[in-house]
Amino acid sequence: MINLVSGSKTLLTVTGLDAIGRAMALTDPVSFSVDHPEVATVEADGWLAAVADGSTTVIVTCGSLTLSVPVTVTAPVAVGLVVAESIPVAS
């Protein structure tokens, strides 16, 4: 599962696995798509962009293999505060 804040981006990387789970190079091209582009979009090079709150699925295809990855996009939430000094004024 991928969790993103709306307005953010992340790069998806894909690694092949052999029959016993070891990483291996992929020989076929990898393609990406999403089922709800109003929630998130994905570029051909794997950049996933969170557009609006909601849920979608990224579908990754390589040759005869397909993987569906759930994605949740949420609104940014303030987790802290900052106070800055403004220009001092003489009294």
- Please write the CATH class name: Mainly Beta
CATH architecture: Sandwich
Q: How many H/I helices?
A: 0
End-to-end span in angstroms?
57 Å
In a few lines, what is going on in this structure?
With 91 residues, the protein is mainly beta.
What does the model show?
- It is a single chain.
- With 91 residues, this protein is mostly beta strands.
- It has a single domain (2-74), classed as Immunoglobulin-like (Sandwich).
- Helix content is 0%, strand content 46%.
- It is built from no helices and 9 strands.
- The protein has strands at 2-5, 9-11, 16-17, 23-24, 30-34, 40-42, 47-50, 54-62, 65-74.
- Strands 1-9-8-5 form a 4-stranded mixed beta sheet, with no helix packed on it.
Describe this protein with a few key phrases.
single chain; 91 residues; mainly beta; Immunoglobulin-like; 4-stranded mixed β-sheet; 3-stranded antiparallel β-sheet; 0% helix
